[in-house]
Amino acid sequence: MQQEFLKKAYESALSAGHIFPEIAACEAAIESAWGQSKLAREANNLFGQKQSHPALAGSGTLSLPTQEFLHNQWVNVEANWVRFASWHDCFAARMALLKRLSRAYPHYAAALAAQSGEDFATQVSKSWSTDPERAAKVLAIHAQHRASFVGLREAA
C-alpha cells in the first residue's frame, strides 16, 4: 500500500511541476495518512490545504475537524478544506500556494530556493504545519523508501 501511494503521489507531483517530487510524495504520506484520511479520500487533498477566502477557483470545500498543535498542546478545531478534482491538481495548487505566500512566509521562500529535498522539507515544515516534528517525519519516510524512488526516477 505504501509503495503504491508513493508511486502515485510521486507521479502526480512530477506532472504538476513540483521541484522535489520525492519529498512532496513523502509530505503527502504524512499529511494524508498514506492517502487514508477522510480529507484525502473525499477531497483529493493530500496536504491539508485549508480553503482560502475567496475560495480557490475551481475547487469545492469540505468541512472536517482536525488537530493542531497550539500553545504546546494538541487541540481539536473545525476547518474548511479545499476539495480538489485530482491529486495532480492538489500538487499544482500547493506549489502555486507556496509561491504566492513566499513573500509573507520566509520559510516558503527558503523552501522554494532550496538546493536539496532535505532543505525543502525542513524549511517548508517550519510554516506549513503546527507539528514540530513534521520535517523529521517526512525525511524518515524518504530515507525508508529511498530505493523505491530510484526506480521511480529511472522509470520517469
Question: Short description, anyone?
Answer:
This protein is of the alpha+beta class.
Structural write-up:
- There is one protein chain.
- This protein has 156 residues and is α+β, with helices and mostly antiparallel strands.
- Helix content is 56%, strand content 14%.
- It has eight helices and two strands; from the N terminus they run H-H-H-E-E-H-H-H-H-H.
- Strands 1-2 form a two-stranded antiparallel ribbon.
- A hairpin with a 2-residue loop joins strand 1 (60-70) and strand 2 (73-83).
- The model has no long low-confidence stretch (mean pLDDT 90).
Structural topology:
Blueprint: H1 2-15, H2 21-32, H3 38-43, E1 60-70, E2 73-83, H4 87-101, H5 106-112, H6 117-128, H7 134-144, H8 146-155
Which descriptors apply to this entry?
156 residues, alpha+beta, Lysozyme, two-stranded antiparallel sheet, globular
Q: What is the radius of gyration computed over CA atoms, rounded to a whole number of angstroms?
A: 15 Å
What average pLDDT do the residues reach?
90
End-to-end gap? 20 Å
**Secondary-structure element series:** HHHEEHHHHH
Number of strands: 2
Q: Specify the oligomeric state.
A: single chain
Q: Give the strand content.
A: 5-15%
